[in-house]
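Let's do one together. I've listed all components of the complex below, 706 residues spread over two lines.
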Amino acid sequence: MVAPESETLTKLSMKALFIGFGNVGRKVAEILFEEWEKFENLKDLGLSVIGIVTKSHGALVNQSGVDVVKALQDFRDIGRFSTLSPEFATISGVNAARRLEYDVLVELSTLSIQQRGEPALSHVREALGRGKHVVTANKAPAAFAYHELRELARKNGARFLHESTVMDGTPVFSLARSGLKGCRVTGLSGILNSTTNFVLSRMEQGESLEDAVKTAQKEGFAEADPRHDLEGWDAAAKITVLANALMGASLTPFDVERQGITRVSIQDAQRAVQAGKHLKLICKAWREGSNVRAKVALEEVEHGHPLAPIHESGSILMIETDLLAPFIITETDPTLYDTAYGVINDLLSLTPA
Amino acid sequence: MVAPESETLTKLSMKALFIGFGNVGRKVAEILFEEWEKFENLKDLGLSVIGIVTKSHGALVNQSGVDVVKALQDFRDIGRFSTLSPEFATISGVNAARRLEYDVLVELSTLSIQQRGEPALSHVREALGRGKHVVTANKAPAAFAYHELRELARKNGARFLHESTVMDGTPVFSLARSGLKGCRVTGLSGILNSTTNFVLSRMEQGESLEDAVKTAQKEGFAEADPRHDLEGWDAAAKITVLANALMGASLTPFDVERQGITRVSIQDAQRAVQAGKHLKLICKAWREGSNVRAKVALEEVEHGHPLAPIHESGSILMIETDLLAPFIITETDPTLYDTAYGVINDLLSLTPA
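Okay, and this is what the predicted structure of the assembly comes out as:
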């Protein structure tokens, strides 16, 4: 049996610096260093991690390769890196990005809208400025400085990849790079925030917003502080990244007309259902002359609407272009593996095809 | 505004040989040589066509570039190339592929299941054997000799691309190449033949198979001889190409368990609807031990089924992998532009990124 088109058997042979080691970072590490034998095409990747830097759980640095399995075990045992580890270090993300020797920065810290993407933005600037590749699941860099960073990457012969910023690891940006050559994207629409979609689905069935949020938190896809989702900021950041990357826009999340779901009542949700519709938080980007505009707004969509089939925690994106008829990508039931996989696909995209 | 990720502004600077100049071939030529000004990212591609060879409408050869606009006009005026043209030639597809000087063969002849993919297969072998790239919308090469041709391409430093063989130009193979690195595809399921899907949708509404086929022919997506579609051969060829390219299978359409829709009655279709379901011709590929199996079969799918939303002429494909949760690609309302676009995306994929 010959290797199918999707399989990359090249070795990475790269040194990575991780900044951020939360759920996504640890899952990437678990897949690549603990679970790799379960995944036939991930054997022998040849990735070594020379540093893992967190904001408040310590840092590990070892130019010959951090003991990632031990690091994961420490997190499980004591919720942080052990200060007793010979690899333990005291270093900030910015300093690590600026001073350590690595080939790719894996930036997995948390998006801060209020701080306009910092400190992630600085980490990425340091790396790209030194000609190091960047792979990130953090929406900050592409939502606040997309074109500056792409240009910085180009100038320094590095790549800036961010597949997991939208729809987890479901191919969106890699698809656009390879499958839409020569097309001009004219419009985007989708349901991109799973917490609000889950909550709206539950409210249709008579559950209150508060109870639905609690269920989403219990099932693990709503944050402890759900306001970032409920107020539409996560959705706004995602449509910003999409508009910047696929439509050449220069937006930030602050440029997106934004509506959340905090004022939706059970009655609103049920009224929509009685009218044969669903209340959805829809993200849109479109062209107006030479500008690109974007918004996040509550809409009642009919049963037959292309975006209607998405319930609970899935996501969906419709892409319109000048040449190809509108097409739709749907993500079903994502777990943490999906977000982690987006990072892994980006890492594998750094090797020549 | 900076060029978005999807845009390729590189020049192709390539010489192409076209074999086949039917609806798809002429639409590719129209887009690239007559309509290009309408498509912002197709300007200045630098593609020259050094030959166009058809089975029964003549051939044109000109090493400095065939006058494609004139050729299209002749087809519109007299339904074939003019024997009076100074570029008119008498040459077979195989001889053209073997003897002319070109960089890429654009193989757009018609699939013949009965002849096991010939003569397309020979055209592609000639080209790849000489180290020339191949771009094809014909399912024959990938359905009958996928791995032989990939290996031939690899050995000779050429590429073998076939985006338009399944779901027209909607990114499927380019997506798998760039967006599923390190994943192992474990299963595929989809509705891939638009004629049968259209006919089944119409039969739900009480139209007879014969009338529905006539409507599909009138709307331009059923062939004059619809048996290739109705008997499930087109669907079988498509799931074969997908299984070969995405799952490493070595199938031909003759290895696919195949069911068509010729025996479906209006009553069957309406009984499904009354039971809250839809009768669909579903393509599937799955792994059994180290083998890959595939089938095309009628199934009653529930309203909520991931493949149910596809009505009339759309297509849909669900991809399951070992790492990434199942995801779905949906093509809405394709026209000839979509098939032609898949060929153009393949052509643009031949330039370094």
